[in-house]
Design brief:
CATH architecture of one domain: 3-Layer(aba) Sandwich
Shape: globular
Catalytic activity: 4-amino-5-hydroxymethyl-2-methylpyrimidine + ATP = 4-amino-2-methyl-5-(phosphooxymethyl)pyrimidine + ADP + H(+); 4-amino-2-methyl-5-(phosphooxymethyl)pyrimidine + ATP = 4-amino-2-methyl-5-(diphosphooxymethyl)pyrimidine + ADP
Radius of gyration: 17 Å
CATH topology of one domain: UDP-N-acetylmuramoyl-L-alanine:D-glutamate ligase
Pfam family, one: Phos_pyr_kin
Enzyme class: transferase
Number of helices: 8
Helix content: 25-40%
Strand order of the largest sheet: 3-2-1-4-5-6-7-8-9
Bound molecules: pyridoxal-5'-phosphate
Function: Catalyzes the phosphorylation of hydroxymethylpyrimidine phosphate (HMP-P) to HMP-PP, and of HMP to HMP-P.
Strand content: 15-25%
Keywords: Kinase, Thiamine biosynthesis, Transferase
Distance between the termini: 26 Å
Largest sheet: 9 strands, mixed
Amino acid sequence: MQIPPRVLTVAGSDSGGGAGIQADLKTMLALGVHGMSVLTAVTAQNSRGVQGAWELPVEAVTAQYRSVVDDIGVQAVKTGMLSSAALVSTVAGLLAGTPVPVVVDPVGVSKHGDPLLAASALDSVRGELLPVATVATPNLDEVAQLTGIEVRDESGMRRAADAVLGFGPRWALIKGGHLEGDAVDLLTDGTAEHWLRAPRLDNRHTHGTGCTLASAVASGLAKGLSVPDAVREAKEYVTGAIAAGFALGSGIGPVDHGW
Ligand code: PLP
């Protein structure tokens, strides 16, 4: 039997199963890679929002990472909710010098506006985590948090990408889904520029979109795809998952991985 590529997510748990570690592992299963997880935080969460969040000790995060990497090995890593400056620093330290691609989803707040990252952690994200990223995947709220740039149009996305690249990731994927019109993303390494467009889908059940996209990119990279190809395939995957998103609970339901 052929051994599948192995992908590690370093992220928080969503008890409702729509985002976080749960979305990551579902994406990886759907894309044919072996998913593994380093849990950073536990959230009590459902379709209405985040009711509580508890972060794991730095030692627990480090130990999970060492267990996976020292024995099983990884072909790509994805980071999501990291909660605090201490965890951002710890994870950045673990990933510094890793030979495999690292996808950083700089998770800031949930769709409901619940904070998933302390404001005091932003300096560590900019100064320690983004420099170890192969691809950083901020949405426009995260761009504003990290760079102070309020993006309103595609030229703003270009300026945002330059500012994000200034923190050191090899590629920036600026997700313009929060703008009006088509869902347009910009992928650039400062030289090549790839605009990815998908029609806006009329479905409010989009919980887990960002986690899913970043995990799909990491899965593609683990399979050996180039960054532009991995991002293109990931965008197709997340577009299908949003189209199939369904109502659960009384609020915003999850994207679907079974389409
Ligand atoms: N909960 C956890 C644990 C997450 O990691 C994330 C996003 O990365 C979210 C919630 C937010 O998901 P969404 O913005 O799709 O609601």
